[in-house]
Amino acid sequence: MTESKFYSTTRRNLLMAGASGLIGSGLPMPAVLRAQTSALKVGVILPLSGVLSFPGIATQRGTDLAVRMFGDEGVKLEVSYADTESKPENGRLAAEKLIRDGATILIGAWDSGATISAAQAAEAAKVPLVVNVGSAPQITEQGFTQLFRNFPPSSEIVAKGVALFKDLPRGNGFDPKSAVVLHVNDTFGQATGGAVKAVFEKLGLGINILDVISYDARARDLSIEVAKAKATGADLVLPITRVNDAILIVREMIKQDYNPMAIYGPSSPGPYEKAFTDALGKFADEYMTSVPWYDPTTEIAKKVLARWAKDQPNDRFELNSGFGWESIQVVADAFTRAKSTKSEDLHAALKATNIKDHPMAGGPIAFDAKGQNTNIAIPLLQNQKGAPVVIAPAAAAGAKVKLPMTKWADRA
Amino acid sequence: MLQIESLTKRFSGLVAVNDVSFSAAKGSITALIGPNGAGKTTCFNMIAGATAPSNGRVMFDRHDITQLTPEKRCDLGLSRTFQIMRPLAGMSVLDNVMVGALLRTTSLSVARDEAREILASVGMTSAADRSAASLTLPDRKMLELAKALATKPQLLMLDEVMAGLRAQEAERIVAVLQTLRASGTTILLIEHVMRIVMSLAEKIIVLQQGEKIADGSPPDVVRNPRVIESYLGRKGAAA
Amino acid sequence: MIELYAGVAINGLMIGAVYALVATGLNLIFGVMRVVNFAHGEIVVGGMYIGYGAWALLGLPTSVSVALAAIVMFGFGYCFQRLIGNQFANRPQHAQFVLYISLALIITGGLAMAFGPDPRSIQSAASFSVYKIGSLRVDATRLQAALSAAGVILALWLWLRFSLTGKALQAASQNIIGGRAIGIRIDHVFAIATGIGFACAGIAGALIAPLYDTTPYLSADFTLIAFIIVIVGGLASLPGAMLGGLIIGLVEGLAAILFDPSAKSLLSYGLLIAILLFRPMGLLGKRRAL
Amino acid sequence: MSGSTTTRRQVALGSIFLLILLLLPLVVDGYYQTMLTTIFITALVGIAWNLMMGFAGQLSLGHALYFGIGAYVVALMAERYGLSPWLGFPVGFLVTSGLGLVVGFLGFRFGVKGVYFALLTIAFAEFARLLFEHWDYVGKTGGLFLGSVKPDNRSLITLRGSATFYYYAVLATTLFAWLWCGYLVRSRLGYFWRAVRDDEDAARALGVRAFRVNLLAAGISAGITGIAGGWFALMNGNLFPESVLGMRVSIDFIIAPIVGGLGTLCGPILGALIVVPLNEIAKEAGQALGLNGLNILLYGTLLFIVIVAAPDGCWPWLANRLALAGRSSSKPDGP
Lengths: 412, 239, 290, 335
Hints:
The complex is a heterotetramer. Chain B is α/β, with parallel strands linked by helices. Chain B has one domain: 3-Layer(aba) Sandwich (Rossmann fold), CATH 3.40.50.300. Chain B has nine helices and ten strands. In chain B, the strands form two sheets. In chain B, strands 6-7-8-3-9-10 form a six-stranded mixed β-sheet, sandwiched between helices. A four-stranded antiparallel β-sheet of chain B has the order 2-1-4-5, with helices on one face. The longest helix of chain B is centred in the C-terminal third of the chain and has 16 residues. In chain D, helix 2 crosses helix 13, helix 8 crosses helix 10 and helix 12 crosses helix 13. The C terminus of chain D is likely disordered. At the A-D interface, helix 1, strand 2, helix 4, helix 5 and helix 7 of A face helix 2, helix 7, helix 10 and helix 13 of D.
């Protein structure tokens, strides 16, 4: 191990010396000055193809927007992407490729498996890895020293979200006594589904979880799952989904005329997506989720949203693009303070991160000993009139919650 | 050496071999003859273990081998050739013969030497390194024989090895068989070339429509009226 | 609870009928040529994209896109077999396998490049329509798909039984050499069989396009399920494919209720293993084909 | 010239090739080292699979079963019980070769052959995947994660470490497996395998115990694949049922030996050297052009070209070019 590190560092030094020598001979600029003004090479690992490419590309849009915005402010970032093809095991190779290409800081990898895979390479090369999205609790439990996660673990999202849900006013036909969990059976869905059951019991909502139904991540037909949920007669449906399965579930609920008091996906990405509201129209309304979200009241969020509306008029700024944006903000901030493109300097700067103005809701971005940002707020969202709005906590709420849900048949 | 008792094979209602019994003495050459479809090859397959009999027993060296697999029978010293030749097409001629020789030895070099010797005895030394798939028909026949010989059989079963060969090539095989008999190997043949059968075999068994109609020395069989009527009657000119 | 079981059973049978059509195509190709089309699921997905494309670009209804998918996939299958497949008729199994795997990858890659990875779904008022039978609610689109699939299978069966080409196909499936001896143009017959096999898959794809969101990466599941059905029902047996489809639809539905929906295929694979070991000719198959 | 002798030229070229591989980490960085390690793993599984398909003639489409179980055994022992992979690998080998024997036993015992055997192997692999996706002990779909490598890590004990460490470790494993398979193929057993592959009935008539010989091929092939899985687990640090037991894994692994040349010792290595970088290049090109799926298309096209234009794979052709001259593709060749 020591030996190999010796080889790789020597080699990198050799390469850099060679490169600067080359530049030095060709340009009348001192190598030192050149190094100071050179752009920071950032490597971003995302699932840009395969089954996760949908959120992966959304994250990329946010990342690109931030690069443009910080570039306008004079922060020179040179971003290159590596695709994991939605395969977790490709994270490592992607990370190593980016490091080879000169990236001294990494961002990634949207999906938890690929993130841990990439973290192994980052750890070995001592290159910091800023996690943009990735909610598996294990990510920060492996003892990685180079990892910084600006995204909450799923258990925390669920706990904070359900706590808000608990305080929603009851009455007027909304008084749920029972619930059924429907979750996608992949890494994320399984962890979250388990957390939901635990949190509901722990917080004492007085809501009985009747069944936890898991469905295959590749399932194209959820009619049986919904029939099974309907047969429990639960007042609440708690779907842990991505975007397409959420659409399938709602469509099936309409067909089977299943009208629970509420549909609420704690830590469920998807239902706030444009694809969801476009696909379901009026049937998308009143669906609730709790996920990290931007705080539309802040100046920086308004600025980001304005620029987004200009650059990406056909897409919705949401969780993935938001954290994609913030991942660049974290890197740009560390780069500005470190005034260096060296991994170790960036690492030291990241450790001292304290960003107060950032678009996603919550306290300042800062990382604890495990590299976790614990200050991310989780609002409760509800789709209203074809778009998600914050309905809790009250301070950030953009609209009032509408419960119980309107029956499907009455949504003419 | 070999004793067949009431061997019967039914294929979904059709009786291919019906209650056939005969025996072959050690060191003798026995020929199984009969018109096409008489059940010779089926009989052969049951003795070699490739087909399970519906009824009857196969005794080899006073052991009942009716339930044994083909490879076990070969291990006991019972080796056969196939009527439709089955060279191991992906391997060289030498390797083909070595597979047989490796039954009796774990040493590759011993097996290789033995294989070369056997190839020499059937006159195929020059073809040793060729691919088995590239052989001509006579050579394939020779290879079938060589493979079977390599397993050092006590009982050698040959299914029409001489069919389609020119006289000169057939003579070569006859010579090999005579040497084998001299060394004490028992041989069971299926053969159409009556000239060879008559000159080689001590005993001839005649099958017709799955039933044995004659069993005896060549002169006896030739004189048997049923044989003359049903079989030699039409092909007598060839004999 | 009875309502749940009845609903799921009906649902399973309906989707099973569509699966049966997919499997019928696979079965026909195998029955005639003894090759296993590992790209079958990709053809289904191709059919789905035809259904989607016809709806999204031209606003065509499913009935029209089904015909379109049938024609396109038949043509594709016929040409593929004439140009490439026939050269592989006597090649070893692994070579055939690699050929179809490469075809599968080319189709998947091509579709991903053409349509992107995002799921495409057909949405219309009909997406939500149901037939109410007592307290049961039967999805209208699904029922139409099931009935159409059953109709296609029946028509195909009649055609094989009574038409001259159909009889030639059957002769070829029983004895290739014999078929050639009585003057059947084997190359042409093989191409027809592949064409029909692909057309079955394409039709099934167009039929389920309104039910499932289409992505390029769905295909492996379709291929596997078609295999299971063919093995369970019996190779080279059309009624077997129908029976197999219905059984698998039913089994997966019931497994989803009894265990976990995400584990429902466990039972299908268990069934496949049991059939392979104990009744390799399948439930309605008569002979071992290989 | 006989099938089982190694010519001096073969030894010389092989040694040069090995020397290049040994020195390569001095000049290439972590990315290429990992890429090469992936190539070695692909070659390792290819060698194992080829033993079963190319030499013994059994088409398995479910080698992910052994790869995944091997990976899980090594990872579970290391992560749950803190046991060194030095113990994990032998256990993994025993477990996976045992599984290979079970699948083989069921298949051969019940006379399941050809396409049916292939489907049986798929069914077992998919069954295992679904089982693992619902089995708490192995972490279900949540996956199984290895902790990060500690700063005081000693690679020779934990068998974990830098890209360079894995490079040499997997290279050594692959070389060892290659030599072992080369030995086996040229041994008495190897003759029996090829005999059974060419014609099982004819081989049995020559006294070859086809059942036992087939089982041995299945067991050894599965065991080696399990070892490859173990390295994958240590190197990658995370395991998911889908990513090690999935159908895609089985398919990916058999492409290399087919492209390289079935029934040759060097085919799987050559195939891996072609297939893995090609996939990587196609992926990058697809990304640069914004064409989702380009890599899959190119991958498919390559396979198509190979199977139509060079059905015996690339190795026999290359061997001729290098004057390593195999008489027939089934003959074991030098490196």
